Amino acid sequence: MESLLGRRGLPLRFVLGAFLIFGLICWVVIGVRSSRASRREIPLDLSKAAGLVVLDKDLAAAENSAVYSDETPVGKSLFEISAAAADASRATNSGLSHNVRLDADKPAGSVTDGLLNDGRHLVTVRAGDTLVKIFKRHCLKESDALQISKLSGAASLRRLQVGKSLWLDVRDGRLQGLEYDGNRLKHLVVKSSASGWSCNDYVVRVDSSDHFLSFELGRNLADSCVRNGVPRRLVGEISQALSQRVNLRNLKGGEQLSVAYRESRVGNELVKSPELVGLDYIAGGKKLRLIAFVGESGRRAYFTPDGQGTQSQFNRYPLSKFRVSSKFTKSRRHPIYGTLRPHLGVDLSASYGTPVHATSDGTIDFAGFHGGYGRLVVVKNGRYSTRYAHLSRFAKGMNRGVRVKRGEVIGYVGSSGVSTSTHLHYEFRINGVPHDPVSVKLPGESLLASRQRHQFITVAQRVGSYLDREQAKRNKTLAVVDSNSNANADRS
After folding, report:
1. Roughly how many angstroms between the first and final C-alpha of the chain, as a whole number?
2. What is the pLDDT of residues 144-159, one digit of tens each?
3. CATH code reported for the domain at 207-311+451-492
């Protein structure tokens, strides 16, 4: 190598010196740049990040001590205590300046955790809450929570429901009383006295309001009711009330129905299903007025204004939604055997598993598998009996001798036994003789007892006056509308 360099006239010592100088220059440049970068990055990323960690830890410690310590100074809020901890942290971490949101993680819609000022405060029960946890969260004495929970009438406070409301009455940092809305119609109220804690139930005020609707029927009662604003829960009751006097499957359209019903609310919340008070049904110029009343049977029934019962001891059908697929007849060709046989009931086509309801009160006379009937339930009521066949399964507890109520589920639609499709075979028998369930005259309820008649007449007069008054208002409104329409038509 020396010979090669020598031929070019460059001594080896000059070449080595040049390399050394170049290396020194590179080392100096890199060192300067690295120093500038470190001075720029350390204050922004390392120091401040470390300070934030320390500050957050101090704030967390302050919050824990404020909420859970018995030594928390009365009268200081959690914000004040946390702010003091933050100031102390800033003093030990000089040069830091940060804005920390103390309530960023607290749920909206509930009171702020920590000490409560004097007054009445609403607390919403959270998942996993107990009375002790709530008291600890708001710096109230845990011993008070334990004493209140042990009160004989405070069972609901031992099983708090998520989302329910708890009102806390606080004075001078101590609990004076509370109210819990575990029941929509009844609140539990706990109060402090010299002798200790006591509790009682406060019955919430329920506001009842009467409503009136009048409209023209189409060919389907349910559709007409819903379309004209009748609550859906009321449609079945209207249908049941009219079914004994009106053939609802043969509506021609144009009939007039006026309905009076009552709603019960606590605030804006509906606390029970709407109740039918009375109705007027007008068809062909004839009016049928029905008044709701608790009759001799103890059930809610419907009577004409003179006290005549209109409701039968039986429902016409055991299903709420169905199609008649085969009628009652003394002779028909059997779909499976192909021979002519009597069909001593009616087939009601419905979806598999549809609940089957007892059409009357009675006693289970048979529940089991019976030849071509398949799974069969027989309900006996005096000289009347009803049969429900081809069931997919029985309702729980359907055994011989068991009492059932009208409307009670006794089984579910199926296709057991000799059957070609899913349906219910329903029979109605009087003294063992089959009758057509669709057309048989159903036994009616007895008239009002003499001891109830005076009370019923009072109710009937009040409901009747309400129906007449509201109908007169509606007729007057319609007359004004018609008059204005005619006047506009004349001007045009």
Report:
1. 119
2. 999 999 998 888 899 8
3. 3.10.450.350
